[in-house]
Amino acid sequence: MTSGALYEGKSKTVYPGEREDECLIRFRDTATAFNGEKKEELQGKGRLNAEFSNLVFEFLAKNGVQTHLIKVVDETSILAKKAEIVMVEVVVRNLAAGSFSKKYGVPEGTALRNTVLEFSLKSDEYGDPMMNETQITALGLAAQAELDEMSRQALRINGLLSGLLARAGIKLVDFKLEFGRYQGGIILCDEITPDSCRFWDAGTHEKLDKDRFRLNLGGVLEGYQNVLGRVRDVVRQV
Q1: How far apart are the first and last CA of the chain?
Q2: What is the pTM of this model?
Q3: In this structure, how many other beta carbons lie within 10 angstroms of the beta carbon of residue 209?
Q4: Span 158-188, pLDDT tens digits
Q5: Which of 46, 126, 180, 195 has its CA 20 to 30 A from that of 25?
């Protein structure tokens, strides 16, 4: 772990803030896939992810979503509220893709009759296994009221983000969210980036996200830049 860091994840490092209830989060250039089995440094990736996530978090905040973002510090760092991360990840699926297609034998791109919400244990050691609500509450990872609130917020974020991306000519296929406990409530934490989402061009279905790295498609940074530029232009018009 980096000296002085509170936590070092796959692509971000968390440092103490000047205040007890704040922390500094720095986006790194590290790209990983398959629980860290594939790893590479892509120069400039941290900057692209930081700018994209900040744009999205600021957009969500303007639309009533409580997030951990306090302010942008520099092109790769933010000051954030020091929340207690709920060790349950929420995956939102609008189209079949990735592990969903593999597990259930559904071709990628298949439209789903309703939005799918999945919960998984936040654990690299155990491969982020899927969990149902009774398993989560049985282990004390989250209370039922917290899960209900996380689900409500996830669906709200999905609606806002899908609409924003549609204006940029991008399909939001699926994405992962993390939430935290802060001052008695549940707030959005972590990031929303091409690392944590599947973005497809609405016309060509070209992959513009981390699948370019996972699947050795090449042009990883070009895909990230493509999404950032298109969403930046739309946000400026909102």
Answers
A1: 40
A2: 0.95
A3: 23
A4: 999 999 999 999 999 999 999 999 999 999 9
A5: 126
Whole-angstrom distance, CA of residue 24 vs CA of residue 71: 10
Contacts of 98-106 with C-beta under 8 Å, sequence gap 24+, read 98/174, 98/198, 98/211, 100/174
Amino acid identity at 76: T
Contact of 119 with 102, CB cutoff 8 Å: no
Give whole-number Cα distances, 187 to 69, 139, 184, in Å.
10, 21, 10
The one-letter amino acid code at 14 reads: V
Residue 223 in contact with residue 212, Cβ under 8 Å?
Answer: yes
- DSSP states of 88-102: EEEEEEEE--HHHHH
How far apart (Å, rounded) are the C-alpha atoms in residues 167 and 202?
10
DSSP state of 110: P
Q: 222, 200 in Cβ contact below 8 A? A: no
Phi (first) and psi of residue 152, to 5 degrees: -60, -45
